[in-house]
Please model this.
Amino acid sequence: MKVKLVTVRSLAQGGAKDRKFADEFNKAATRCEVDEEDMEELGVKPGECVKLTTREGSVVLEATKSSQSPHRGIVFVAYGPWINSITSSETGGTGMPTLKGAEAEIEPCPGGRVLGLEELLDRNLKKAGRLE
Amino acid sequence: MSEERTVRDVACPFCGCCCDDLEVTVANDRIVRVRNACALGRSKFESALEGRVPNPRRNFGNAVEVRFSEAVELSAKILSEARYPLLWGWSCTTSEAQRVGVELAEEVGGVIDSTTSTCHGPGILAVHDVGESSCTLGEVRHRADLVVYWGCNPVHAHPRHMQRYTVLSEGRFRKRRKDRRMVVVDVRRTATARMADEFIQIEPNGDYEALTAIRMCIRGEELEQENVAGVPSGRFEELADEMMSCEFGAMFFGLGLTMSEGKSRNVDAALSLVRELNERTKFVIIPMRGHFNVTGANEVLAWQTGYPFAVDFSQGYPRYNPGETTAVDIAKRGDCDAALVVASDPISNFPIGAARHLASIPLVAIDPHETATTKVANVVFPSAIVGIEAGGTVYRMDGVPIELKKVIEPPKGSFRDEEILSAILKAVRALRRR
Model:
C-alpha cells in the first residue's frame, strides 16, 4: 500500500532521546502508527511487524493502531535512526531533508523482527568500515 | 552532605520553551525530585546519570580510554589536518560554548552548522525573504485572543507552551481559557488538536495551498475550488474572517511547515499571511523551536559571522549558502573529510546517506551520553549536561536570553563543552604555530 510517511516528535521518544540504547527509546522510535482502516486493509494487527520501503531502502517496524485516526494513507513514525535509515538525503537546495510527507510503501512483514540500535548501526554503517 | 537542598527558578534544558520555574531537589549531589517540569524536562533531570560516556576515549578499531589531554591532541590533529571539516550540533549547549565553536570553525577553515538546518532552517530562509512580525511569549500570554498552532503538536513536543504562554495561561488582559480562541491546523487529530476550539485537518504537503487560500480570502478574492488541501474552501474563509477580526493573533508553527514539501516556501506563505493580517489587526508569528538553545546557536552565529547557520569558513571569510553549506548536503556529497559533533547525534538523526558518510570520516564527539554518534566516533569526550551540571546562557524560542543553572556536580572527568572546545582550539593553534 502506498502511503505518505510523516516523522514526528512524541513524548516517549523525546523523553528517551538522551538514552539511545535504552528499551524505551527503541520502543518509541520503532513504532509505526497506522490508520485503523488501513490496518484492516493490510491485514495487520497491532504489535505485528510491517516493512516500510522508500527509494533508500527498507526498515521493519512494529505496527500500532493510531489513536489519532482517521488519517488514511498516512503513517507516523517517531524521529530516530530506524526511520532515518530509509530517509533520503535530498534537500532540494534548502538543507532540510523531506522528513514529512515522503512517499513510502507499507506491507505486512510476517516473521519480521525490529532490529536493536546496535544491529541497525552495524547493518547500515558496516560499509563505512567503522564497525567491524 | 546528606541534607536535601532545593534549587529554585531553575530553567529547563529541554525544549525551546526554556521554562524557568523548575524546582530541583538535590541530596548527596543526586537529583531526588523535580517540580513544575513537564514529562520531557523531568525525564531529562531524573535520568541524567543514565547511559553516560564514562571517560575520554579514542577508537580506531579498538576503543581505548585515554587522558583528556591526549583526546584534545588527537582532536586538534584531526581537525587541523582536514581540508573541509564540519562542526555540527550546538543546539544543546550554551551560547558561551557556541562562541568558542565559531572561533574554532574559523581557525580550522571549516563549516559550522547547527541542528537549525534540520529543523527551522527553512523558516529562517523565509525570514530573509519576507521578514517576520514577532514579539515575546510574555506579550502573547498577556494579549493574544487568537492562538493558531500550525503543523506543531506542543502537547508532545513543548508540553508547557499552552500553560505558560498561550491558551491555558493567565495573562493581564486574557485571564481565562474562554478569553481566547485556539485553532489547530495539522495532518491528523493530535492531542493538541483535541484541545482546540477548531481543528482543520489538511492533507500532507497541503500547507502552502491552505495558507495561500487564506491569503486570498483576506484580499477578498474568491476561492474557486470546492476543496483546498483536502478541506472544504469555506473552512478557510471562516478562518480568514476569524483571523481578521481578532484583537491580537499569534501563530505558532512547527516542523509541519519546514519538513514538508515546499519547506521554506511554506513558511514564506505563513509569514506573508501574518504580514498581510497586520494591515487589518495585530498578528505575530513565532517558530516552535525544538532544542533549548537552537535559537542561541542562530543568535551567536549571526552576531559573530553575520549569518545564522551553515557558515562556511573554507575561503577564510564567512560564506552562507544553505543547500550547499548545510550539513546534510555537505555530508551527502561526501565533501567533509572530518567532523566535530557537539551535543548532537547526527548518526541517528541524519538521513542514511549523510550519516553513512559521517561514519566513514575521522569523527570527534563531545556528549554527556552514549549515542549512535559516540559509538562510531574516533575520539569521544564526556561532557557535563548543560542546565543540570553546567550553567550558561541560552535563548528561548522568542529570542529572550535565559540563564541556566548548575544544580549538581558533573561526574569526575566530564567537563563543560566550553572548556573542552577551548582546549581543542588552543591545541589547534599550537599545531599551526609549529
